[in-house]
Amino acid sequence: MVAHMARIVISSIGSMGDLYPYIALAYGLRERNHEVEFVVEPLFADQLRAEGFATTLLASDLRTLDPSVVHRLVMDNDPFVSLRILAYDYLGPALQENIGRLRDACQYADILVASVSQVAASAVAELTGIRWLSIALSPTIPSAEVAPTPLPISLPPPLARAVNRALWALGGVAVARASDAPLNAARAAYGLPPRHRLLQDGNLSPSGAAVAFSPSAFPCPAAWPPCCWVTGFLFWDRPTNWQAPPEVEEFFADAQGEPVIAVSSGSMGALVGQAFVPFFATSVAAIHAVGARALVIGAGEAYTPAKPDERTRCVEYVPFSWAYPQCAAVIHHGGAGTLAQSLRAGVPTLIAPWGADQFFHGAILEHLGVGRTLTRKRYTEERVARILGELLTSPDLRQRAETLKAQIAREDGVGVLCDHIEAALAQ
């Protein structure tokens, strides 16, 4: 391990939920006396500076996307459509400038640690030769041992592996066609050759690609590339200056035996206007139908309950790590960080995915037997209420969730990842 302080640049992109695991990592590195600087979008700047981290801004900003584009992003229910929107409307237009800003920030750095969705990272590594470690929050790396989408029937292992390989190959072609062109155009501006499947596995560092997911929930497949390993979740979601809202504390305290079910759709809820209103309204109606209280987190100003009462509480933000352990069940979109918190809390979960890797996470949840998945197209009050009834009453499901919770509690994703970073620095 390194004995000296290193200067480490961390770069992430996306919504606030995409940032939180990297704050956990940054705290772990800072505790080991390393200097950490973030290179991120303006959306993240205030939070990071409040936590005491130096911050350089990228050119891209998720908040500037046209509302109609954001609406299509979260409502199409097709992961390839969402990838195309991300590439052409969000990542691609600012990528050339993002590469330049990240390169400047790395001028005196010892290592660059970047999310796999930060496609500027591979370009900067090629341009500068800096050590580069990529981090994936989701285990969506092609492998013959893992189905990219749930298969309708059970197959013998050899046939299942062949089908998995074929599905990953077809998916890779679709990913490349949906998203590679605008990203490689920005690379070409710096004289760099094209990369393939940049929004799948084409932006993994050959020197090391950590998957910040629980090995208890998803053991590292033997067929993964040698550069990939699973570390464990990176948990952080409680800002230094956060205090529990009294009205939410009272909401839990006044439940008087009624179960509380939390419902959220990730940190993008406030950015998408009316897009998630039907999801929240249907969820609250179904929660009430099973005799439970609804805690709505991050719905934004667009959503207000049709019949406000003491059994519903809406709040802009509370840490899932604080709220979920107090809930009998949770409903969310299946984002990597939100899924991590619900598994950590040992709470039965309903996932309602809308794009990207969320469908894959729903399949993991189903395989673990700790929750259920329901697509937005089939998301009706009756179906949701039926699933919630199962989540609230199934002792087997709850026992599996508690067992997984205990296993995750013994993991140390931050410590494992810090060890890998220091090993790379020591080479």
Radius of gyration: 21 Å
Number of E-type strands = 13
> What is the tally of helical segments?
14
Shape: globular
- Low-confidence blocks of residues: none
The CATH C-level name of the largest domain is: Alpha Beta
Strand content: 5-15%
Question: Kindly, what is the distance between the CA atoms of the first and last residues, rounded to a whole number of angstroms?
Answer: 9 Å
CATH homologous superfamily descriptor of the largest domain: Glycogen Phosphorylase B
What would you say this structure looks like, in words?
This protein has 427 residues and is α/β, with parallel strands linked by helices. The chain folds into two domains: 7-76 and 89-233 and 412-426, 3-Layer(aba) Sandwich (Rossmann fold); 246-409, 3-Layer(aba) Sandwich (Rossmann fold). Helices cover 44% and strands 13% of the residues. It has 14 helices and 13 strands. It has helices spanning 16-31, 42-50, 67-75, 79-105, 120-128, 157-188, 246-253, 277-289, 320-323, 336-345, 358-368, 381-393, 395-409, 413-426; strands at residues 7-11, 35-40, 54-57, 111-115, 131-136, 209-211, 228-230, 260-264, 293-297, 312-315, 329-332, 349-351, 371-373. The strands form two sheets. It has a seven-stranded parallel beta sheet with strand order 3-2-1-4-5-6-7, sandwiched between helices. The chain has a six-stranded parallel beta sheet with strand order 10-9-8-11-12-13, with helices on both faces. Helix 6 (157-188) links the parallel strand 5 and strand 6 (209-211). Helix 3 (67-75) packs across helix 4 (79-105) and helix 8 packs across helix 12. It is globular, with a radius of gyration of 21 Å. The N and C termini lie close together (9 Å).
